[in-house]
Specification:
The structure holds 2 protein chains of 2 kinds. By secondary structure, chain A is mostly helical. Chain A has one domain. Chain A has helices at 2-14, 16-41, 45-51, 59-91, 105-137, 145-164, 167-175, 178-197, 208-214, 222-244. In chain A, helix 4 (59-91) packs antiparallel against helix 9 (208-214). Chain B has a single domain (2-82, 147-232), classed as P-loop containing nucleotide triphosphate hydrolases (Rossmann fold). In chain B, the strands form 2 sheets. Chain B has a 6-stranded mixed sheet with strand order 6-7-8-3-9-10, sandwiched between helices. A 4-stranded antiparallel sheet of chain B has the order 2-1-4-5, with helices on one face. The termini of chain B are far apart. The chains are: A mainly alpha, B alpha/beta. Chain A: The chain crosses the membrane at residues 16-41, 61-87, 108-134, 154-172, 179-202, 222-244. Chain A: This is ABC transporter permease. Chain A: Keywords: Membrane, Transmembrane, Transmembrane helix.
Chain lengths: 250, 236
């Protein structure tokens, strides 16, 4: 298993998509938070109304806004990189070279997912550290216990958001299309937003992690988060099975 | 080493291959020739597990394809459709990727770089290489582990004359070492130089063989294809 993981890690670390994805997720979130904070400091009434109870210039406000950005933007960023990890083999036509190898295609697919998840954990950690630095720069002082818990939830939200993007890998495999994967990412975001607006967020595995982080763990329980992880694991299994049975008949 | 027994596959659109029966034995170079769309690439995909036959059996190293232990694929070197090379990686990194996926000796990468004269471009990204150099990297990646079964689809595409000679010598060397080699090509003169046998494919079927020593190979090939088309009633 070690060899395909090394190969996939090399490919992601040398790719422009990996670099841009990382920068977009970390710097993009930081830039948005800076904009929101500066607007709040400027007392923009429209923004204050839109942000609701999170429109505060303190750790709670910062982390709540970060959770909202991660819920949508993180899903788009993570999902796009995941779509590329799988879809590039079809787009670059390298998929034919992944046959007739002593390493099975299911293991190659699993290696892609392992490398993706390691990257998600790393990006989420860096984003958490960036938020810590940002809060300090904004003068929110040393984080208290509640802020540390919020930072922990933010890190977990990043990882859970990466996990719930997993259907993208399966869709790309079935369609052999990178664009279909990106379309799936957009679809996941839309479904999530609709579910939240319809009040079914907690029961919806796609929306549960974001609601959990934004409600500080009050509206979503461990069982609902576990369902989200089980769904992600199911799509990992489906993706690996599809790669194992893959044929180049299209 | 590689054996097809009455192999057939029909695609959804109707095209495909049928009744494919042939074998490539150790130490033998078999060339597959045919017009575009004859089914050469489909045959090669069937040989490498990229497609599963509707009927018939494909046997590799004495085992049915479905029962072949994963480790035996290490003895196969193939390039069909496109090289296993990633545009963002350098030549050396791409060869390392191929080596890692086969679990072979790291020194083989340097040997392949020397054999395929890739030294001047070894640290250049694959996307920045000329088509010919990309083809050489693909061939080096497919052959660096000295496989015992080689399957190459149009390997001389985009190669300069010097690289064609490297390819020809390498395949001859592998055959002398006992490798079985199946190679498709449009270049009949090139095929005549390297092949022990030539298989002619037309309309998804193997329609016979040609002797590489045939004086006017091109004329004989076209005559064979025309005869088959007439026999099938396809000629206008």
């Amino acid at each position: 298993m070690n060899a395909p993981i090394r190969v996939e890690a090399l490919k992601l670390s040398r790719s422009l998509v990996g670099v841009i994805g990382t920068l977009a997720l970390v710097l993009g979130t930081v830039a948005l938070l800076c904009g929101i904070t500066l607007s709040l400091a400027g007392g923009q009434p429209d923004l204050v109304a839109k942000m609701g109870p999170t429109a505060t210039r303190d750790w709670a406000g910062l982390l709540s806004a970060a959770a909202q950005i991660t819920a949508a933007g993180g899903l788009i960023g993570f999902g796009t990189v995941l779509a590329w990890l799988f879809g590039r083999e079809f787009a670059d036509r390298t998929i034919s070279g992944l046959f007739a190898l002593p390493v099975g295609r299911a293991r190659i697919a699993l290696a892609k997912i392992v490398v993706y998840l390691i990257w998600v954990v790393a990006v989420s950690l860096v984003l958490g550290l960036a938020l810590l630095l940002l809060g300090s720069l904004f003068g929110y002082g040393s984080p208290d216990a509640e802020a540390w818990a919020g930072l922990g939830r933010q890190w977990a939200l990043g990882m859970l958001t990466g996990a719930i993007a997993m259907p993208v890998a399966w869709v790309v495999t079935l369609t052999r299309s990178l664009l279909a994967g990106v379309g799936c990412v957009i679809g996941l975001v839309v479904v999530t937003q609709v579910a939240v607006l319809a009040g079914a967020g907690a029961a919806m595995p796609l929306a549960a992690p974001a609601l959990w982080a934004m409600s500080r763990g009050t509206e979503v329980g461990v069982a609902q988060l576990a369902v989200a992880l089980i769904c992600a694991a199911a799509f990992v299994a489906l993706t690996c099975a599809s790669w194992a049975r893959l044929q180049l008949n299209r | 080493m590689l054996e097809f027994e009455n192999v057939g596959l029909r695609f959804r659109g109707g095209a495909g291959v049928q009744g494919l029966t042939f074998a490539v034995t150790a130490g033998e170079i078999v060339a597959l020739v045919g017009l575009n769309g004859a089914g050469k690439t489909t045959l090669m995909r069937l040989a490498l597990g990229m497609l599963r036959a509707d009927h018939g059996t494909v046997t590799l190293h004495g085992s049915l394809m479905a029962e072949l232990p994963a480790s035996r694929w290490r003895e196969v070197g193939a390039m069909v459709d496109a090289p296993l090379a990633y545009p963002e990686l350098t030549v050396r990194q791409n060869l390392t990727v191929a080596r890692l996926l086969r679990g072979t000796d790291p020194r083989l990468v340097d040997d392949a770089i020397a054999r395929w004269q890739l030294g001047p471009v070894v640290d250049r990204r694959f996307r920045h290489l000329s088509l010919g150099n990309q083809q050489r990297v693909g061939l080096a990646a497919a052959l660096q582990h000295e496989p015992r079964l080689i399957v190459l689809d149009e390997p001389s595409n985009a190669l300069d004359p010097a690289s064609v000679i490297v390819l020809r010598e390498h395949l001859a060397e592998r055959a002398r070492d006992g490798a079985a080699i199946l190679v498709s090509s449009h270049h009949l003169d090139e095929v005549a130089r390297i092949a022990d046998r030539i298989l002619v494919m037309n309309a998804g079927r193997l329609i016979g063989g040609l002797d590489p020593a045939t004086p006017d190979l091109e004329r004989t090939f076209f005559a064979r294809v025309l005869e088959d088309d007439e026999h099938r009633g396809c000629t206008p």
